[in-house]
Write a structure and sequence with these properties.
Oligomer: single chain
Number of helices: 6
Number of strands: 7
Helix content: 25-40%
Strand order of the largest sheet: 6-3-2-1-7
Largest sheet: 5 strands, antiparallel
Order of helices and strands: HEEEHHEHHEEHE
Distance between the termini: 21 Å
Length: about 160
């Protein structure tokens, strides 16, 4: 019988976390190419897999063996619990300087706009399906979930 999502599957124990040794073993597995870890987190089956993103290795996260685009768009439980939040400047420094030049703004006026928080210095928040580091992944999972259990580390059974 599958537990309800969002409920800890370990009765009478709240805040169950892997041991220090288990975290070290998970980190070793996720530091090598194509490493794989299966976790049970608050009733969700979570798969962590090392994969390529361009020329770097990242840790991909699958919730119930899926990556749904709706989780990135909608504010849902899966996004809050498991997906990393990223922020970027809406405009590059080069674009800001071009706007300042077109508007005839001085450096002082541009700094004033930055202090006032105008649209030229807005940040955009987005979510994705991978973590750039083990530390970021562990922090997100520990801070946003109560019950984390290790099911399997590696591809073996």
């Amino acid at each position: 019988m599958k537990p309800e999502p969002g409920r800890c599957i370990v009765p009478h124990k709240s805040n169950k976390q892997p041991t220090r040794e288990q975290w070290a073993e998970i980190e070793r597995e996720l530091c090598r190419p194509f490493g794989y870890v299966f976790l049970e987190i608050d009733g969700y089956d979570i798969s962590l897999q090392v994969m390529r993103d361009g020329m770097k290795l990242v840790i991909g996260i699958y919730v119930e063996h899926l990556m749904r685009g709706a989780w990135i768009v909608d504010n849902c439980e899966e996004r809050r619990k498991f997906l990393p939040e990223r922020q970027r400047n809406r405009y590059t420094e080069k674009q800001r300087k071009l706007w300042a030049k077109l508007d005839g703004l001085t450096k002082r006026q541009l700094d004033k706009q930055k202090a006032e928080g105008t649209g030229l210095y807005e940040k955009t928040t987005f979510y994705c399906f991978h973590f750039n580091s083990f530390r970021a992944m562990k922090s997100k999972l520990v801070n946003n979930n109560e019950c984390i259990e290790v099911v399997r580390i590696g591809h073996g059974s």
